Nicotinate-nucleotide--dimethylbenzimidazole phosphoribosyltransferase
Amino acid sequence: MDLDWLTVPARVPDETFIQAALARQQNLTKPPGSLGQLESLAVRFAGLQQTAEPQLERIAIRVFAADHGVAAQGVSAFPQSVTAQMVANFCRGGAAICVLARKLEADFKVVNLGCTGETPEHPDLIDARIAPASGDFTRGPAMSREQLAMALNAGRDQVAGADVFLGGEMGIGNTTAAAAILAALYQLPVAAITGRGTGIDDRVLEHKVAVIEKALVLHNLKRQSPLQLLQTLGGFEIAALVGAYISCAQRGVPVLVDGFITTAAAAVALAINPGIEPWLVYSHLSNESGHKLALDKLRAEPLLSLDMRLGEGSGAAMAAGVIRQALALHNQMATFAEAGVAGAD
Ligand SMILES: O=C(O)c1ccc[n+]([C@@H]2O[C@H](COP(=O)([O-])O)[C@@H](O)[C@H]2O)c1
Ligand SMILES: Cc1cc2nc[nH]c2cc1C
C-alpha cells in the first residue's frame, strides 16, 4: 500500500492574516495583551484558517478505538473487554466525549479499527476493522506493514473540511504502547515516561515499566525509522491518529491534540513530516505522569491543565470551548474607534 502521501508538504499558515489579526487585537477595547493566550489563539487561528474572522463552528471529532495485544501482559487496571464496551457506550451517547460533543454541536464519529468483543451497528460507528487487536509487542511487532498502512490510511480518510479536527482514542493498554513509542523515539528512560494509565498501583506500574524495557531490548529500535517504530510498538488507533494529523496539516485543517496517547501520535507524525508543526495545538496537560516530559520534548505548551486523564478527545473538547470563545472575542469586540473609547497614551 502506498504511503508516499505521508511526506507531502503541509500547508503554511498565512502571514498576512496573522499580521492583520495582531493589528486588530491592538485596536480592541482592552489593554493590549490583557486577554493573554486568548489573543494569541485568535491570531494563530486567523493564520491557519486564512481568514480575518477565524471560527470554530464546524468541529469534527473522531474517536479511534482499537485493542492492544500487550494488554495480555497485565499492564492496565481494566480488562480488554472495556474497549468494545466503551465503543457501544460512545454509540449510545453515554461517554464523556459524547456529552462534550453534544455541547459543542460537533460532528462526532467513532472509528473501530479492531476490538476484541461485540460492537454494535450504528450510524455513528465507522467500521475500519483491521484485526481483533494489534500484536503483543513483547513477543513480536505490533502490526504488519500492511496493517500499519491500513491504519494510517483509515485515519487520513476521516479528515474532511472542518474548522478544526479533534482526534480521540480508546484502547485498553494504549498508555503502554504510547510510553514505549515515546521512550524509543526520544531515547527516554522508560520509568520517566510511563504512568498509571487507567489507575494501576505501584506494583503494576513497576511491572509495566519492566514490560516496556524488555520489549525495547527485544526489538532493535536504534536504527528504526519513525514509521518502523510505529509498526513495532503502536496500536491501530495511534497509527490512525498519525495519518489523520498529517492529512489535516496537508489539507489546512487545524488539529487539537488531546492527551498522552494522542501526543505520542503527534510525536510520530512530526518525526515523519516536520512541516505539520504549526497545525498541532496542544489542548491540555494530562495527569498521565509522562505527558509533561513528552510535551517538553515537543516544546509544546498545553492550553489547559485540569488534571484530566480520560482520553477519548475529552481534553481537546474542553479546549475547543475556550478557543471558540477566544475567536468570538476577536471577531465581535468593538475597537476603540467604534466604541469611542480613548486608547493608551
Ligand atoms: O489521554 C490521556 O492522557 C490518557 C491517560 C490515561 C489513560 N487514558 C485512557 O485510558 C486507556 C488506556 O489506559 P491503560 O491503563 O489501559 O493503558 C485508553 O482508553 C485511554 O483513552 C488516556
Ligand atoms: C471506563 C473507561 C473509559 C475510558 N475512556 C477512555 N479510556 C477509558 C478507559 C476506561 C476504563
Observations:
- The beta strands are 59-66, 107-114, 125-127, 164-170, 255-257, 280-282.
- Residues 59-321 form a domain with the Rossmann fold fold (CATH 3.40.50.10210).
- Residues 78, 82, 86, 170, 198, 310-312 surround 5,6-dimethylbenzimidazole (ligand 2) (CB under 6 Å).
- DSSP finds 14 helices and six strands in the chain.
